[in-house]
Amino acid sequence: MKRNLAYALMGMLLSVASCSFTNKSFENDDKDKLLLDLITYVLEKGHYEPKTIDDDFSVSVFEDFIDVIDPTKRYFLAEDIKEFEQFKFQIDDQINSTDISFFNLVYDRLIQRMEDAKGIYKEVLDTPFDYTEKENIDIDYEKLPFAASRKDLKERWRQQLKYATLGTYDSKVRKPTKDEEIEKPLEIDEADQNVLEEEVDDEISEETMNPEEAEVFSRESTRKTLDEFFDFVSDLERKDWFVQYINTIVDEFDPHTYYFAPDDKEKFDVSMSGKFEGIGARLQKKPEGAKIVDIISGGPVWRDGQLEVGDEILKVGQEGEEPINIVGMRLDDAIKLIKGAKGTTVDLTVRKIDGSMDVVSLTRDVVELEESFAKSANIIKDNQKFGLIDLPKFYVDFDDYTERNAATDVAKEVERLKEAGAEGLILDLRDNGGGSLKTVVEMAGLFIKDGPIVQVRSSGKGKDVYDDKDERIQWDGPLVILVNELSASASEILAAAMQDYKRAIVIGSQQTFGKGTVQNVIPLENIVRSNDHDDLGAIKLTTQKFYRINGGSTQLEGVKSDVVVPDKYSYIDLGERDQSNPLKWDKISPANYKAWNGYIDYDRTIANSKKRMDNSAQIKLIEENAKWLKSKQDETVISLNYDAYVNDEEKAKEKSKYFKTITDYDSKLTFESLKYEKDLFVKDSVLQEKRDRWHKNLAKDVYVEEAVNVLQDLKNNSLEHGKLAAKD
């Protein structure tokens, strides 16, 4: 994002806010009302396309808030909804007058109903389930009415809990085959999380039980899960639920405008920078303490070597001070005690896996989440070498751009691949949800001489063209970009620019996600001259739309691949067009640019690739699998009869076996790490194991295989062009 834009917007807001909020008085100094007033003010003044807060807006907030806090309709009764409906057309008036009566009523009732639910689920789970009974459950909860009475609500819980136990019951009655065993992933995808909220406690056991034992086991397993869930809910405070209400209001403006509570803002910053200061361990709350569920390579815990996955932290002390007992404490609060500034010491009282007690002192440090960053690999085919760069997101440190960021990292990987002899380059942007606008402009400049990369327009203003002004070209060889339905925002800017320049061939889904908007993060405390409420958090605000250099918007439409190949998401509703309240598509005048002239027969290369894909048995199988997954997703009526369940599972198992050959595919390509990474393996076996698994998966990836084929075609075209030029 452009820093000057953020400052300009901040200046505009501050100039008005200084008189709007300095002396404003709120009854009982209510922080919630102040927060509501600030956010609606910022939305009105700063949003790209502000909405009118009227009765229609009120109805949307009413319906969406109820859906957010009770999506499966197992807390509220119909009589509650009827009582809430007195506010259905009044929420707009309440927002404008900073009245939170609607929220207070719903929140108080929710806490009451959740307390009732604790009794209901225990009553239900005290009674054995009859799996011989022929009955169904409809899991399309959106169409489900709210229960008319506690009796009806208990029946709803019974069906939902019976449904929840079926899989566990089946795993204990029938011994799983080898194909059904679960392989836990080595890498954790949630790189922006410091804790894991879920963990698989019970692995599939090879020991079978008789039906009576299995029925008891499945109920108790479900009871344990619900006990832990309600324990987590009990840790939530009123302010946590109010954040949900605020974000329901904010979400009406567009899907990417979002309010960050103070802790959430910190997590967002971590996700964007890929680093934080702490001990380098992911934790999960347990009744006995905070359990270590993952150790981050290179962090203090990893370097120290005394702690391991499964150890439980019971007490936390600071620099030799009296330790604080964290057993029963909110996990977020415990993490605040454990994390801290680089160079400081934390003393952890730990119960080891073997039951022994120990005190481990660690010096906190900057922890980098390796899985957040760009990584590269050599690809060897027919004595030719190509390079692949995987980029999970366009990361950046907003406080210091000179720190590690996606653009500089990709530049380093490009240089390393060039030195290793790469003759073509693949940039993998699949599942990349975007990030910093500045990094994508700089990154695009690595592949062209100079020129416009993206056009940006603010509300009611003309367009700004963001150019690459550096005439150096770091990579002038063949280039392929891989995308899918989850490639969004900055990924779409890069793919679109390279496509418009005819600089790269884009291979992937029919269209990418379709997010064509720019957000700025505005700290709310900067909008009030005096603040007695501590940190007020921040709002991520949609302030601009971006456009391709050809003038078209990626909003809703995304980027259409040059070579369309199906994947498992092909028929699933995932894009911007499937989100709530997206902004519309439009277009503006094109920028002044010239297409790349480094290769000839660009169109022939695309035609050849399409022909290969059309004749690929692997691609046909993937598309068939995608259609099957969509059909399974559309099934909302599920049998709760065990025999019917087994019959459905057997059919699904046969289909799974059929589609298993997708993962058996072998491209015959060889993947290897670059020299600098191989040197790291000497001290980091975990990193080596992660890379080995990544390379193994890449070798099964038909999209990467086709990308290499395209690179070969582009390389051959270039050679042919060179020979013809020499003759002339």
From TrEMBL:
This is PDZ domain-containing protein. It holds the Pfam family Peptidase_S41. SMART domains: PDZ, TSPc. The keyword Hydrolase applies. The keyword Transmembrane does not apply. GO terms for cellular component: outer membrane-bounded periplasmic space. GO terms for biological process: proteolysis; signal transduction. GO terms for molecular function: endopeptidase activity; serine-type peptidase activity. It comes from marine sediment metagenome. Transmembrane segments: none annotated. Residues 269-341 form the PDZ domain. SUPFAM superfamilies: ClpP/crotonase (SSF52096), PDZ domain-like (SSF50156). PROSITE patterns: PDZ (PS50106), PROKAR_LIPOPROTEIN (PS51257). NCBIfam families: prc (TIGR00225).
